Predict the structure of 3-phosphoshikimate 1-carboxyvinyltransferase.
Amino acid sequence: MTNQSLRWPGGPLTGTAHLPASKSEANRALLLQRLAGGGTLSNLSEANDTVLMQRLLAQAASTDHLDAEDAGTVMRFMTAYLAVTGWRGTLTGAARMKQRPIAILVDALRALGASIEYVEQEGYPPLRFGGQPVAAPAGQLAELAVRGDVSSQYISALLMVGPMLPGGLRLRLTGEVGSRPYIKMTLKLMQHFGAAATEVGRDVIEVQPGGYRPADYTVESDWSAASYWYALLALAPAGSSLLLPGLREKSWQGDHVIQIIMQPLGVVTEFRADGSGASLTQRPLAPPPVDAPTTNFSDCPDLAQTVAVVAAALGRPRRLTGLDSLRIKETDRIAAIQQELRKFGADMPEVAPGVFEVQSANFHVDGQAVDTYDDHRMAMAFAPLAMRGPLLVHEPLVVRKSYPSFWRALAAVGMQVG
Ligand SMILES: O=C(O)C1=C[C@@H](OP(=O)(O)O)[C@@H](O)[C@H](O)C1
Ligand SMILES: C=C(OP(=O)(O)O)C(=O)O
């Protein structure tokens, strides 16, 4: 096992945070660029998820075995792409990917005529594609009801191949739809690449046939990655401030709500007039409210770990809801947060069905080692605790999934990373 130590030398945190580009935007844009047959994408990150998406799209033409590793968007988006292009071969993933469900997407693609079989466990990757392209009857709108309460990635995947179907696609989303902003991001990018894709009613989305047009797109910096800098600032000494380049005030990423969530936790955001990024300033905390405030993470699940750790470290009780999807991400993130918070004298018990409360009576950071559970967000969400004391992080390279330069970026603002 490799370990990394983090130590803040003292004094305010200032400087510029180097952020990666959004992997969510990039992986959509890469697929749409491929389906459009052109267009230039700028600011693609070196995140493994983005590199993988590029590689698999390039390899599909020449191989019958593809590996999406631990990248959910790659697994789900490629599944839809390989189905509409009539690919023959096997799409697999990492051990954890084989535990992340995919039946909702496979069922929908099968209903459109794709031949996809499960190689190991029913309902889970790996998948074998029979080479039969989806065959919705020419000129007829394909209509599907798809559950929206497990992962929005199935819906985004289906929507993006919708313009390639001869009669277009109408999706009716059922259940309590989670991660909605990611669906809206998909629609925005599809429209950017010339598709007619619109919400025609509550949870009904229609996509017209006709494919895509080549377009250029510059990927925005990643707001989920920015959340770790908000956390660092919230836990930093008084007088701290940071510049986060490449963030837009009007973002297609739902995780930009971190700027609102972090206000009562002492971080104020201002956007630079020239559009070059966000300036973050730390402000003194107001007295805590009498009752623990509740934040619903159903629209922004990737922020839950960040906020849980900051609330615990600041001793600000907070209730977290909308966490269901965390159980099927890179790890069971609810269990992982609980386990790791306990090392610091905090916890996040389920106090009512679906309601988790961050509690911290005796929070202390004094050299504990954080386990990262093959989850980049466990590493990055707990790293800001180094502002409060020395810390060890196990398997730090896990950050390569979305933010390979994270540790270098921390070192660049003065964190002692060893
Ligand atoms: O579409 C996307 O780019 C993503 C959607 C979300 O997943 P779910 O829809 O599974 O919640 C999010 O957690 C993930 O990091 C990226
Ligand atoms: C859940 C995540 O990614 P994915 O589902 O794309 O693997 C994430 O990056 O937090």
Summary: The mean pLDDT is 97.
